[in-house]
């Protein structure tokens, strides 16, 4: 069986990223160091600045990695086509969450935040409707908890001025803390579901 050309793919991804960096430097007329160096080092921020946000990004990245690995593990196995499709969809969604959170896309791109969040919700809902029969109880529990914390964070954001009038700066801790817990349980869901599908497929059970 011919093995995938991972070294070539890795090289292509690396070169493409460098090409984007060079293009951004030319378009924005920024120094290369502005795009290549760590922001905390450049702007003399403390290393702990944005701590919770940065850790949250790691959870999104881990979620995408776990489901991508799961999709690779069940590829070409009998009865695994639907599971692989769902795992790929979850990988794309986690990747979108990761990029959005890391680059704050929902606040920088001239599209209303609600359309960003609505597109995520519709994508997830459509896939859950298609593949709901694949969800085991443990995965579903983590998914519901993740959704609950995300909903809490979004609700606080929508009523931020009212809540901040009562709680002051604690409001942002509650909003971002709920989002972080959502990311934690999303990773739990990704791990639990991926592991369940790998076991099911490799043990030959439908």
Please explain how this structure is put together.
It is a single chain. This protein is mainly alpha-helical. The chain is built from ten helices and no strands. Helix 4 runs antiparallel to helix 5 and helix 4 runs parallel beside helix 10. The protein is globular and about 55 Å long. 21% of the residues are buried. The mean pLDDT is 93.
Number of strands: 0
What is the terminal-to-terminal distance?
Answer: 26 Å
Task: Report the radius of gyration as a whole number of Å.
Answer: 20 Å
- Structural class, judged by helices and strands? mainly alpha
Global morphology: globular
Flag low-confidence runs.
Answer: none
Helix content: over 70%
Number of helices: 10
* Beta-strand share of residues: under 5%
Helix-strand pattern, N to C? HHHHHHHHHH
Main pleated sheet: none
Compute the average pLDDT.
93
List its traits.
single chain; 80% helix; 10 helices; 206 residues; mainly alpha
List the helices and strands and how they pair.
Blueprint: H1 6-28, H2 32-36, H3 39-42, H4 51-74, H5 81-103, H6 105-108, H7 113-131, H8 137-158, H9 160-167, H10 170-202
Helix pairs in contact: 4-5, 4-10, 5-7, 8-10
Brief synopsis:
The chain has 206 residues and is mostly helical.
């Amino acid at each position: 069986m011919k093995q995938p050309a991972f070294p070539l793919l890795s090289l292509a991804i690396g070169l493409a990223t460098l090409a984007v960096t060079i293009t951004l430097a030319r378009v924005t007329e920024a120094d290369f160091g502005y795009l290549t160096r760590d922001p905390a080092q450049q702007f003399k921020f403390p290393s702990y600045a944005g701590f919770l946000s940065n850790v949250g990004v790691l959870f999104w990245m881990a979620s995408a990695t776990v489901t991508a690995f799961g999709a690779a593990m069940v590829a070409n196995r009998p009865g695994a086509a639907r599971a692989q499709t769902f795992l790929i969809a979850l990988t794309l969604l986690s990747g979108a969450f990761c990029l959005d959170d890391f680059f704050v896309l929902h606040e920088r791109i001239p599209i209303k935040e609600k359309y960003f969040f609505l597109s995520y919700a519709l994508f997830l809902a459509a896939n859950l409707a298609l593949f709901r029969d694949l969800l085991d109880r443990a995965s579903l529990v983590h998914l519901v908890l993740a959704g609950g914390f995300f909903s809490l964070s979004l609700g606080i954001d929508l009523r931020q001025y009212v809540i901040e009038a009562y709680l002051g700066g604690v409001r942002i801790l509650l909003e971002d803390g709920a989002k972080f817990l959502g990311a934690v349980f999303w990773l739990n869901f990704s791990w639990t579901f991926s592991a369940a599908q790998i076991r099911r497929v490799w043990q030959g059970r439908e």
